[in-house]
Amino acid sequence: MSSKKSSAPSTLGRSFWQRVLFHNMSDTLLAIVLGFLMGALALVIAGYSPLTAYGKLFSVIFGSPRNMSYSFIEFASPYILTGLSVAFSFKTGIFNIGAEGQYVVGSVAALLVGYFIHAPAFIHIPLCIFAAILAGVLWGALVGILKLRFGTNEILCMIMFNWIAYYLSNYIVNLRPVLSAPGKTWSHTIQDTAKITISGWSSLLSNKVHAGIFLALAAALAVYYILYKTTLGFRLKAVGHNINGAKFAGIPTEKATMITLMISGGLASLAGGLQVLGVTYKISQFAGQEGYGFQGITVALIASSHPLGVILAGLFYGAMKFGGTRFDAPSEIVDIIMGCIVFFIAISGLIRANIQRLAERRDKHAANDP
User: Fold this and answer.
1) How far apart are CA 298 and CA 86, in angstroms?
2) d(Cα 346, Cα 31) in Å, to the nearest integer?
3) What distance in Å separates the CA atoms of residue 111 and residue 260, rounded to the nearest whole number?
4) What is the Cα–Cα distance from 9 to 144, expressed in whole angstroms?
5) What angle, rounded to 10 degrees, do the helices at 253-275 and 292-302 form?
6) Is the pTM of this model over 0.85?
7) Which of 42, 183, 187, 350 has a CA that sits 20 to 30 A from residue 24's CA?
8) How far apart are CA 343 and CA 171, in angstroms?
9) Per-residue pLDDT tens for 120-177?
């Protein structure tokens, strides 16, 4: 009788902690809090007041509609899409470390179509966007062919393809006078009919507010629908969860792998294309990797690879990157905060397992008590 009385409350308590402590959202929120605490420690060591620095950080982000548009539109849009690219591949069992190169080829494709093609805006803009997506789809498909046809490791391929995209972009920028003026390290700008900037809002918001944020949100909703509402998404997740089980169930795993690489490549390259069409209007010669694709890994981890969570994670990351360049402390503090957040998310599974082990041990002792 006593064991039944003790086990019922413990079961109720365990389900409560599973709902509250073990949920991905709570893990992420706790990681963010801990990340800011570690950032505060770094600020103290560096001789800054955490309250003053964080107050300045948040006042920069939310201080005016213009700053909010910088944070949540211009800065956040590429992170949402590259994070979505990485999250989609994570869900289907592939580590897309090639989002950086896919981002670059998307920007190059958008530039070429945006500069050389002359057409009305209602034709030109969709054509540039399609070219950017197609470039990433083909870039991802090349990795898929190498993996499936020749058995190469897709992670190594993606790393090499990042550098190929990097130098390909620099080569194209330096095609003078075709794409750049003599003595310049950046390309000509795209045609006005290819720009997606919403100029009517420039008096109140950033002059680089563009329609890309709506495409990023639409892409996140589309990926969510594919993964959770379609048989294709079920098959892709099944392959990612257990490839041998998927093969046994008759799911064509090679086709699933190719589809994953193509979709994730298209999402990352869309980010690059929108950045050219809405923000930079050109591409510059790289002195180093821009990092949008690599930072998309951080966004995906913060979002626990959930497509809708990527929206919030991308907005948060974009705001932190914008605010970190304008608050009264070294901008590297923001990198420390984001790195600590990812670290705490990464070890959340270990913490969760230890807590669950302690709870089970407590229940066992409670059940053995007379």
Assistant:
1) 9
2) 9
3) 26
4) 52
5) 120
6) yes
7) 42
8) 37
9) 999 999 999 999 999 999 999 999 999 999 989 999 999 999 999 999 999 999 888 8
